[in-house]
Amino acid sequence: MITCRICQGSVQEFFDFGSQPLSDAFRKPDDTSTEFFYRLAVGVCEQCTMVQLTEEVPRERMFREDYPYHSSLSSVMRNHFEQTARHLMETECRGPDPFIVEIGCNDGAMLGTVARSGVRHLGVEPSRDVAELATAKGIRVHFDFFQESTAAEIRAADGPADVIYAANTICHIPYLDSVFRGVDILLAPDGVFVFEDPYLGDIVDRASFDQIYDEHFYLFSASSVRTAARRFGLELVDVERLPVHGGEVRYTLVRQGRREPSPEVAALTEDERRRQIVDSAILEQFGIQVKRNCEELTGLLRELRAAGHSVAAYGATAKSATVMNYAGIGPDLVPRIFDSTAAKQGRLSPGSHVPVRPIEEFAEPYPDYVLLFAWNHAQEIIAKETAFREQGGKWILYVPNVHVV
To answer: 323 pLDDT exceeds 70?
Structure first.
């Protein structure tokens, strides 16, 4: 029996993506070392409804010194984090010497605005390469994983935090109990713990199955977050739907009794109950849609290649590992992936070993069709690559279904 990491209840597995590599382990072409694989399967706790992976990948394997994801590369996300920082400072930093802590600050996309505003801050980041980028921007960074012991160190050195914030980080952390205990240690009496992560409701609705990969250990709903928070003396008092990354929710937690929950909390939890997003029949249908989308995608790619069309991919995302390795997409169907991240260029995609090329080579010449792995940035990318469309190029997307635009 698989045991829930939150409440020790029974976890019912509902989909198995089979053997998968580390999603961000892009290999050098001459690397002959054994590639790490694990079983990617997802289940739901029958007691607390938390959706979670059934197998944990060691955190040191995923969040290495050369972690290749940089939050600041997307203009949409830069704007999002700047607005978030200003909102937090305006609404939650009313005291004479406010203190903001970010869990998983990456390259400082959010804390850069805080630092420039002169607000006391600290980023907690275990991946040294991106942390050094943040440090170069004048951001204070503590090089470590956030957990109970880390929180105690920060509290002793800097005092309590008015705001503890995280974006696309809390869902990465299997040991959520230690995170919540750390929040309890570090958070000021009237402070807020704010985090935003991919939303289970959107993943189920849109069949955005590639949001499931090694780093996304949990798929949160408002109901499961509220239940988990209460186990550690915290209360969910606000939720906000966000359009970024294919659909997220921003959760605001405080110590129990400090604030009344907003009407949005009741509305979203009731919507989840009404839609039964963790019902076995709903999750079974999700699995059917995943299989259908993958079969249709590989079928389309084979047809295009057989017809002599040139095909490539755009965005060597972490989530593309799930798609490529589950659907069996390799260099025979997609000979190259174009990406703007220098750390990934010249390497091979995890498991499928498709070469990653610089984005500057995209037009040399343009392919006929491009599979958009970074579909969550579709609007931004398609608007930027107008010349590709003007010369007849077509984009292939697979969320919520396989279609060509």
So the answer is: yes
